[in-house]
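ugh ok so i messed up the first submission bc i forgot one of the chains. this is the corrected input, ALL of the components this time, i swear. 277 residues overall. if the numbers dont match what u have on ur side tell me asap before i send this to the collaborators (the ones from the other lab, u know who)
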Amino acid sequence: MSSDYCTEVIDPANPRGGKVLATIPRKLYIRYYKYYIVRYENLRAARHVLDHPRRIFAGVRQFSEGGWCFTGRPENWYIKEDVIVEFPGNLVFAVYLNTRMIVYECRAEDADKNDINCPANWQNRYKGLVWKSTS
Amino acid sequence: MEKHFLSEFVEGEERLEPGPWYNPDGDCIIYQIADEAIIADRIDNVLTIYRSAITEKAIGYQIKGVGALMGIFGLDGMLVESTEDEQEIKEVGISLYRLLLAAYEQGPKTIGRRRAYADAFESSASHPRTGSAEVRIPSMSL
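and heres the new structure output, hopefully the right one now
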């Protein structure tokens, strides 16, 4: 059994088609566990976003082609070790994946004032919005 | 709270003091000095400041596009040391301060950027153990 964690997600390259595997690599979650337990706990929020994305954005970097950002709204999140609170209404949780669908960053960001499922200033940050939840 | 979905994979792992880290999957450096939830404050194409979700203070940062920055500025201005094996460089030690300065020089000299880059410097310097702010990067990643 691979120790990377894989989960099926909407294929951002073909959102109306099938699914693809997204990977949370062992080296990432082990690092989080060893050094940043709050980030480790908030991988629960990251998994929720991967499973239930509200928006998917393409083109997340200036210097490298491709990459994806899945955003969503977990019910709650950890703010300190053993301290869990409701996820704030003015934030959105973002999970960043590279072109190989490997998660390399997940975090909260300020939400867009007109669409709380998008990070603020998303229009100038990403190449485009490729998928949005209808529910 | 229900059991963590990765709990069986981390069993027996030791908890340690954090330091700056280069993540090759994202070609980025992550540096966070306090173990609290973060709100990311994207400053420009290179720098994102991590603000504490509790105090709103800067508690770290992410530097993106590290390989590209190295390509633009070269290793000379940023290299602290390198590890060689049979005359081949295996790993390089990069100064985060020099990398941040190079990134700052890339963009407009606005007050907002200056403050954010100052926050990044200060969060590095305030960490008791990693005040030297150096990160090691496998040469094959550059």
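quick check: Chain B has a mean pLDDT of 85. that seems consistent at least. Chain B touches chain A through 39 residues (CB under 8 Å).
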